Amino acid sequence: MPSDGALSELAHTQLSRRQLRSCPTLSHSQLPHRTLLATSESKADVLRPDTGDYATLIDLSYLQVVPKTVRPLEKQLSNESRKLWETVRDNLIRKEYSDAIKEKMAIEQKQRDSAAERKKKGIEFVPRYFEKDISSGFP
Q1: CA-CA distance, 99 to 91, in Å (whole number)?
Q2: β partners of residue 8
């Protein structure tokens, strides 16, 4: 069994190799680097390399949780997410992973087949709850 010093040296060597593999290219190395510090679960600060000061990047503690309402499954259409993926979810909860994968693959294949059929017929898919053009970044 290696000594504590040997283990420490081994860990240092492995870390160095890992760092070398993920070393940025020369162009990236010239970009300013900021150090992100996770000060809490809701706040993140960055260390500015130019001034050495800390600045708050984001503070989620000011945000309010927006309550969400979803129609019951029996009132949802067959292609709505919760209804569509219900059997996959149930299989995952029961840890029946093979059945979940089979069901997932069947759903995805049905969606691919439907898309191919629409394309063949020249029918454009129009989402019910989303707008197609959100080039402004807002719905």
Answers
A1: 6
A2: none
pTM of the model as a whole: 0.49
Contacts (Cβ under 8 Å, ≥6 apart) of 23: none
Beta-strand ranges (E) seen in the chain are 35-38, 43-47, 54-59
Helix or strand or coil: residue 110? helix
Give pLDDT tens digits for 68-106: 888 898 998 888 889 999 999 999 999 999 999 999 999
By the 8 A CB rule, do 85 and 107 touch?
yes
Structure tokens that stand for 116 in this block: 């191919």
| d(C-alpha 127, C-alpha 77), whole Å | 13
Rounded CA-CA distance 100/107 in Å is: 11
Residue 79, phi then psi, degrees to nearest 5: -100, 10
Quote the CA–CA distance of 29 and 16 in Å, as a whole number.
17
